[in-house]
Amino acid sequence: MCRSIKTLRPPALPAEATEEDVRAAALQYVRKVSGFRAPAAHNREAFDRAVDAVAAATARLLGDLEVRGGRAPRT
């Protein structure tokens, strides 16, 4: 796992993860999996789509998780 990706769910973060936090984690994941820090122009669209998809999946996951201690899932 990429060491740059941090845990985004409470209580690891004092507050809810921001859209920026989610996007940064998605970018780090796609960079790790693809092996590209910055893709070539001909791969940019695929790279950006992957970041968007991972960010959306991450946001859904965080919204669906129930954290012990009473935080209800986001809708």
From TrEMBL:
InterPro entries according to UniProt: DUF2277 (IPR018735)
Domain of life from the UniProt record: Bacteria
Pfam families: DUF2277
Name assigned to this protein: DUF2277 domain-containing protein
